Amino acid sequence: RGDGKGKLPPGPKEEPPTAPPAGTPCPQRCRRAGTLQSNFCSSDFVLTGTVKSVSRGPPQEPGWAVVSVLSLYKSGGLGVPQPTKGTTLRLQLPCRLCPALKKGSSYILMGRLGGDGGALLPPDAFVVPYRPQQQQVLGNLSKRPCRET
After folding, report:
1. Can you spell out the DSSP letters for 86-106?
2. Where do Basic and acidic residues bias regions lie (predicted)?
3. Which of 10, 49, 99, 131 could lock 127 by a disulfide, CB 3.0 to 4.6 Å apart?
4. What pLDDT is recorded for position 11?
């Protein structure tokens, strides 16, 4: 057309420049599944916290997030001291891309314990931005017994 008003065809979606190394379990897309309720019992720990720092490190090594705990709803053997509010916790991030965490933001974090007993946030961990209205829902979930599978 030449009038400058034509649309360009959509380009390919941007992918990370390099694929994660074979030893790092990263999915094609970073996507969480389920709800607060469906993930609560299957997670080893459930907490709300504010991200103090995120370090993604070299590609062959896991990254880390340092989180200041707001509330702990399920400790799963993390060994977090009481009272939990203000305690900092170091979470391992085996995938460089997921979950996406931003310094200064608060999240609900549902993760697993690693083989060394440390906190682990795998790519499929249930991580959502925290809103104060969710506190009551999490409190109610923490009072219900989880069925062992």
Report:
1. T-EEEEEESSSSSS---TT-E
2. 1-16
3. 99
4. 42
- Among candidates 142, 144, 148, which has minimal Cα distance to 46? 142
Domain residue extents for the chain: 36-142
> Peptide bond preceding 99: is omega within 30 degrees of 0, i.e. cis?
yes
Q: What is the CATH number of domain 36-142?
A: 2.40.50.120
71 CB-contact burial (10 Å; exposed 0-12 / middle 13-18 / buried 19+): middle
Q: Kindly state the tokens that stand for 127.
A: 């991580």
Residue pLDDT, tens place only, 8-21? 444 443 333 333 34
pLDDT in tens, 88-116: 999 999 887 788 899 999 999 999 988 88
